[in-house]
Amino acid sequence: MRVVVIEDEPSLLAQLRQRLEDEGWMVDTSSDGRDGLYRLMEYPADVAVVDLGLPELPGLEVIRRARAQGRRLPILILTARGQWQEKVQGLEAGADDYLVKPFHMEELVARLKALARRAVGSTDDCLSLGPLVLDTQAQKVSMEGDAVALTTFEYRLLEHLARHPGQVLSKQALTDYLYPHDEDRDSNVLEVLIGRLRRKLDPQGRHAPIETLRGRGYRLTLRPDGDP
């Protein structure tokens, strides 16, 4: 998964980045509200962490503007004060959950995972799409009951597709999701990853789990369990 973290305390920002990266997440960070709002609007992400006491632009205003511009990803707010009025203001601005500083990293990680699960309509750590099952906690994949060995980038790509089943995701959007935004990207890498995923998920070429829509992008054709 990918997360945007907006926090102006350098030591806490570094701790958050390290812990979330240890969880296998891609992390984009910002230390002020104005730049943070830009990253929220321009960078693909599954969840966000927003501190309320930000320079340049207060956290509440960051959330309000992001929501007003149609950004719908789950947002967890951080507050150092713990006053109930501030929590209410954050939730009314469009946040989905909150934590009061100081907090335990384990709780923050657990809350972010819960927000990400709810965003895709899941209540546990597994994404089940017919014969394809992803254990997002262990980052393990099985197809028709057989384990599928994936590299880190293959897994990230597949999980992102699985969180948007049936949706067309452009090549640019997928590339932006997979790689740091200050890193040069080889335009052929995504095609290579898609090709490898297809062969690993369907070595016999029977199911076509990932569809290419020329000029538009890629789509996971498998549907969540229970969908028509």
Automatic annotation (TrEMBL):
<keyword id="KW-0902">Two-component regulatory system</keyword>
<dbReference type="InterPro" id="IPR011006">
    <property type="entry name" value="CheY-like_superfamily"/>
</dbReference>
<dbReference type="GO" id="GO:0000156">
    <property type="term" value="F:phosphorelay response regulator activity"/>
</dbReference>
<feature type="DNA-binding region" description="OmpR/PhoB-type">
    <location>
        <begin position="124"/>
        <end position="222"/>
    </location>
</feature>
<dbReference type="InterPro" id="IPR001789">
    <property type="entry name" value="Sig_transdc_resp-reg_receiver"/>
</dbReference>
<feature type="modified residue" description="4-aspartylphosphate">
    <location>
        <position position="51"/>
    </location>
</feature>
<keyword id="KW-0238">DNA-binding</keyword>
<dbReference type="InterPro" id="IPR001867">
    <property type="entry name" value="OmpR/PhoB-type_DNA-bd"/>
</dbReference>
<feature type="domain" description="Response regulatory">
    <location>
        <begin position="2"/>
        <end position="116"/>
    </location>
</feature>
<protein>
    <submittedName>
        <fullName>Transcriptional regulator</fullName>
    </submittedName>
</protein>
<dbReference type="Pfam" id="PF00072">
    <property type="entry name" value="Response_reg"/>
</dbReference>
<dbReference type="GO" id="GO:0005829">
    <property type="term" value="C:cytosol"/>
</dbReference>
<dbReference type="Pfam" id="PF00486">
    <property type="entry name" value="Trans_reg_C"/>
</dbReference>
<dbReference type="InterPro" id="IPR039420">
    <property type="entry name" value="WalR-like"/>
</dbReference>
<dbReference type="InterPro" id="IPR036388">
    <property type="entry name" value="WH-like_DNA-bd_sf"/>
</dbReference>
<feature type="domain" description="OmpR/PhoB-type">
    <location>
        <begin position="124"/>
        <end position="222"/>
    </location>
</feature>
<dbReference type="GO" id="GO:0032993">
    <property type="term" value="C:protein-DNA complex"/>
</dbReference>
<keyword id="KW-0805">Transcription regulation</keyword>
<dbReference type="GO" id="GO:0000976">
    <property type="term" value="F:transcription cis-regulatory region binding"/>
</dbReference>
<keyword id="KW-0597">Phosphoprotein</keyword>
<keyword id="KW-0804">Transcription</keyword>
<dbReference type="GO" id="GO:0006355">
    <property type="term" value="P:regulation of DNA-templated transcription"/>
</dbReference>
